[in-house]
Amino acid sequence: MKLNYHHLYYFWQVARTGHLTRTANALHISQSALSGQIRKLEDSLGYELFIREGRRLKLSEAGRLAFSYAEDIFRQGEELAAMFASGARPNREVLRIGAVATLSRNFQEAFLQPLLGREDLELSLQSGHLDELLRRLSAHRLDLILANQAIQGDDQNPWRSRLIARQSVSIIGPPGLESRDGFPAMLSDRALLVPGAENSIRQAFEQLCDYHRFQPRIAAEVDDMALMRLLTRDTGHLAILPPVVVRDELRNGTLEDYGALPGVYEEFYAINIRRQFETDTIRELMAQPADSFLGLNSESENQPQASRVTSPGT
């Protein structure tokens, strides 16, 4: 089979917009001619590349794979044109990474550290709600998502979630507080900063409190970890946090870790689309040991760490 690159180009343009009519207008051809070109490509490949949903076209599983190859082919073609036009030599890999807005900035920076400063790589870093990031991933506008929850894929959305790190969640606060014995004594009569109600850390913390029949005194619930970091540093309240969020403050003594909460963890996931190939850059990121980017109190699922905040019977 000899691939017709004109047909592939038309497919690539339609896949980027999801609209046949809009793409036909942009390419200055008729909608029927554009549709015919795509049908010829589908016939030559032996697979349907689109699924029609109302007035939009959605990529099929075969279409996703074809689009990933077309994206590389035509992006390199654009780089070639830019190289001759400017006399420069672009030849830089582009890696597009999304992160949920509530994810620790310290974690993100440390995880991406091996890529920072590479002259042969252009990083595009995007932040948003997980649903929106998943839509961008499905449209091949992202290569990887960093999140604190796993996502279940299916035939229509072949997402793959991989656990890259797991860290205990601690009681964090100003240094020098009286260290009471165990949970929940350490929190008794003290105002708390906690993550928002939909956060998995908050849900695990509430289950722990229910088990101990303890009612915490909540000063504020905060969705954004960057704001949580500032409030923990500046208010004098205790906070329920993964240590990586306040890594620098713990190192310089501005804050103190009063111990890990039993059974309360934050997990970090990398989400991408299952495909036949994976770039060397992504493989390099995924091969990092968790200790290299968590830095403080990291623990794997198979290596539990002792905690000063204990549950009954420990």
Automatic annotation (TrEMBL):
What Gene3D superfamilies does the annotation carry? 3.40.190.290, Winged helix-like DNA-binding domain superfamily/Winged helix DNA-binding domain
Which Pfam families did the record assign?
A: HTH_1, LysR_substrate
PROSITE patterns given in the database record: HTH_LYSR
Region Disordered: which residues?
Answer: 294-314
Q: Residue ranges of the HTH lysR-type domain?
A: 1-60
Give this protein's Gene Ontology molecular function annotations.
DNA-binding transcription factor activity; transcription cis-regulatory region binding
Keyword annotations for this protein, in alphabetical order, are: DNA-binding, Transcription, Transcription regulation
Record's keyword annotation contains Flavoprotein: no
Q: Which residues form a coiled coil?
A: none
Give the Polar residues compositional bias ranges.
295-314
Which family does the record assign?
Answer: Belongs to the LysR transcriptional regulatory family.
Query: Could you identify this protein by its name?
Result: LysR family transcriptional regulator, transcriptional activator of nhaA
Organism field: Marinobacter segnicrescens
Q: What is the lineage of its organism?
A: Bacteria, Pseudomonadati, Pseudomonadota, Gammaproteobacteria, Pseudomonadales
